[in-house]
């Protein structure tokens, strides 16, 4: 039994009425991070309104392609050969997501991978909202050295047995989310919920065969069209002051102004969501105050790239930015 290390909510305490009625704690392992990469395993822990575990589910998925970084997830082509295809597990997966808030560590990544798989299967994932446990940890002000899952687990005394195994990662996250949820309820914290918009159409390009290198920036090619209804989005103001420019070899810091230029392998809006959830200021234009420009084509002549050269703004590609997002330094108090 997990012992909570945060304020608990007694049975007599009124639970916030605005909180969701159920959660699906999810982890997916994938062939990579690009927009044409595939899910190779998925796990879901269903939790009730107060975070108590109802049941759990796990499946392997045959990606019909090279499994990617086997040294991370341990799933070889041989292990996946007899696994079901995603359309064969889509219905059961959907039943475990339906009517619940999707909870994940770096939730925008898990959501985008799931949404794309459903779009390929010509279906929509039944998810309306997601909650990122990184964002929740920040809302609670947890004293974590960084925002890795292992640090969140250690804070709550949760023992991880098999890192990068979807079922164990989902279990660890569920056990860490429960006391986080109770602490939020006890403190009247508003949960950092984000809308999930499904993809309704998808078209893959041929994936590389085993051992073949992917072409183009960001990995495998391909593209998608999001749903036709895309309301204009006004992001909330970044609550942190701008600490200045990013320095090579150091961490990003909350409040840094980040601009994007050119095509990205991850949908731009989702990439911006990840930056916002990490506490960065997403800038639509580039100025002398911009901390960092993210582009996969630093030699292009776009206005942002030209200005970055003029102002001496640091530039990184999408892959490097993705790595930096995993460990963003908290803003100064």
Query: What is the chain-wise order of helices and strands?
Result: EEEHHHEHEHHHEEEEHEEHEH
How does CATH name the architecture of the largest domain?
Answer: 2-Layer Sandwich
The portion of residues assigned to helices is 25-40%
- Name the CATH superfamily assignment of the largest domain: Ribonuclease H-like superfamily/Ribonuclease H
Structural class by secondary-structure content: alpha/beta
Total of DSSP H or I helical runs spanning 4+ residues: 10
Strand-residue fraction? 15-25%
**Termini, distance in Å?**
35 Å
Instruction: Report the C-alpha radius of gyration, rounded.
Output: 20 Å
Domain count, please report it.
2
Order of strands across the widest beta sheet?
3-2-1-4-5-6
- CATH fold description of the largest domain: Nucleotidyltransferase, domain 5
Q: Please give the CATH class of the largest domain.
A: Alpha Beta
Q: What spatial form do the alpha-carbon principal axes imply? A: globular
Number-wise, the strands total 12
Overall pLDDT: 84
Low-confidence segments, given as residue ranges, are 1-12, 207-232
How would you sum up the major sheet?
6 strands, mixed
Keywords: Exonuclease, Hydrolase, Nuclease
Region (Disordered): 205-251
Domain BRCT: 250-328
Organism: Streptomyces aurantiogriseus
């Amino acid at each position: 039994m997990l012992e909570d290390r945060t304020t608990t909510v007694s049975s007599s305490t009124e639970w916030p009425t605005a909180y969701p009625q159920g959660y699906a704690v999810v982890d997916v392992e994938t062939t990579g991070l690009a927009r044409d990469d595939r899910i190779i395993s998925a796990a879901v822990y269903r939790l009730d309104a107060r975070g108590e575990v109802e049941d759990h589910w796990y499946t392997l998925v045959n990606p019909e392609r090279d499994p990617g970084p086997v040294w991370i997830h341990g799933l070889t082509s041989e292990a996946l050969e007899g696994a079901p295809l995603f359309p064969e597990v889509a219905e059961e997966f959907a039943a475990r997501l339906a009517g619940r808030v999707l909870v994940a560590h770096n939730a925008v990544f898990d959501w985008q991978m799931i949404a794309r798989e459903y779009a390929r299967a010509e279906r929509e994932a039944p998810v309306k909202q997601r909650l990122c446990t990184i964002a929740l940890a920040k809302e609670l002000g947890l004293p974590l050295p960084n925002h890795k899952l292992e640090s969140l687990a250690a804070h709550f005394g949760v023992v991880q047995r098999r890192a990068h195994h979807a079922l164990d990662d989902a279990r660890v996250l569920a056990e860490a989310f429960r006391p986080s949820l109770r602490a939020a309820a006890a403190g009247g914290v508003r949960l950092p919920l984000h809308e999930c918009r499904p993809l309704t159409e998808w078209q893959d390009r041929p994936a590389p065969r085993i051992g073949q290198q992917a072409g183009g920036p960001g990995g495998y090619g391909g593209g998608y069209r999001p749903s036709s209804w895309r309301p204009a989005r006004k992001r909330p103001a970044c609550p942190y002051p701008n600490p200045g420019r990013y320095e090579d070899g150091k961490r990003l810091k909350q409040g840094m102004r980040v601009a994007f230029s050119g095509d990205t392998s991850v949908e731009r809006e989702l990439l911006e969501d990840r930056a916002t959830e990490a506490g960065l200021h997403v800038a639509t234009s580039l100025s002398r105050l911009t901390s960092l420009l993210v582009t996969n084509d630093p030699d292009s002549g776009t206005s942002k790239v030209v200005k970055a050269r003029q102002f001496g703004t640091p530039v990184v590609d999408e892959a490097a930015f993705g790595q930096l997002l995993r460990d963003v330094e908290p803003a100064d108090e």
